[in-house]
Write a structure and sequence with these properties.
- The protein is α/β, with parallel strands linked by helices.
- The chain has one domain (about 10-270): 3-Layer(aba) Sandwich (Rossmann fold), CATH 3.40.50.300.
- It is built from eleven helices and five strands.
- It has helices spanning about 25-50, 70-75, 95-100, 105, 125-130, 135-155, 170-180, 195-200, 200-215, 230-245, 260-270, and strands at about 55-60, 85-90, 115-120, 160-165, 220-225.
- The protein has a five-stranded parallel beta sheet with strand order 2-3-1-4-5, sandwiched between helices.
- The longest helix is centred in the N-terminal third of the chain and has 27 residues, at about 25-50.
- It is globular.
Length: about 280
């Protein structure tokens, strides 16, 4: 995303930038990414087990129904779950608030070799915090700088940060919320508070625009992902993960033992000898 002022109206939530095919082609392309992502993940994991510092953090933000859960199932689901740490950030507890808005974020950062996924994140404190007046304007303003400093340190310590705003239209949100009401098996996903949040759509869009402007840094840039089309959203996130992980240019760790000697010993070994 280019630096400078952001107007979300300039970004088509129904678009498919970077992909010329249709829904069927998008689903096939997503499936094809599975093998590539699996090898990239294994290289990252092996690097972490061998003393490397590299790790990946995907930050997902978006309005209700924008598809964070769908991304988890269809894009993140392509990874081996053993190498993934997923954290969904709900309303902070009183104790967490007293410790500062970044405290609980720091407790859930991925370890070396791991892929971390944040379903909502520290950005809630400048999004809902701004819209709901949960903190003073001066406090909110300071948080943008705190976030930038925090993310800069993350990157310096070996973390690749991918920040994706799942951009959905109000009409598509209404469609998805109605679908939940029409299906008794989806009633549990519906929250009556969604209507109240939806009524503040313009306020949230402006809060997102400010966050995108203030926290779009060279170290951790923001990416706006059109999310009206689920299949495109899933492919786009998986593609961003592939691009970021390929950029790490990780090689397989070199053995810290004599391979040929171990081969000879293994061939000569007989665990049943003497029985």
């Amino acid at each position: 995303m280019p630096a400078g002022e952001v107007d979300l109206a300039d970004f088509d939530p129904h678009g498919t930038p970077g992909f010329a095919g249709n829904k069927a082609g998008g689903k096939e392309a997503l499936a094809d990414l599975g093998t590539v992502l699996a090898e990239l993940q294994e290289r990252l994991f092996a690097d972490g087990r061998s003393g490397g510092r590299r790790r990946v953090l995907l930050v997902l933000q978006g309005m209700d129904t924008s598809g964070k859960g769908g991304v988890m199932r269809h894009a993140v689901g392509l990874f081996d779950p053993q190498g993934v740490h997923i954290k969904s950030f709900a309303t902070p507890t009183d104790d967490e608030r007293r410790k500062g808005f970044l405290w609980r974020i720091r407790q859930n950062l991925p370890e070396p070799g791991m892929i971390g996924i944040f379903d909502r994140s520290h950005y809630e404190d400048v999004l809902i915090g701004r819209v709901r007046n949960l903190a003073s304007p001066s406090t909110i303003a300071k948080r943008y700088d705190s976030i930038n400093a925090f993310e800069d340190k993350l990157v310096d310590s070996g973390t690749t940060v991918i920040k994706a705003m799942l951009h959905i239209s109000p009409d598509k949100q209404k469609e998805r919320l109605l679908a939940r009401l029409d299906d008794p098996t989806k009633h549990w996903k519906y929250d009556v508070a969604d209507l109240e949040e939806r009524a503040r759509w313009s306020e949230y869009q402006r809060a997102y625009e400010i966050a995108l402007e203030r926290c779009n840094t060279a170290a951790a840039p923001w990416l706006i992902v059109p999310s009206d089309r689920k299949w495109y959203r899933n492919w786009a996130i998986a593609s961003l993960l592939r691009e970021a992980m390929e950029g790490l240019d990780l090689t397989w760790p070199t053995a810290d033992f004599d391979v040929e000697e171990q081969r000879r010993l293994l061939i000569a070994s007989d665990p049943l000898a003497g029985r």
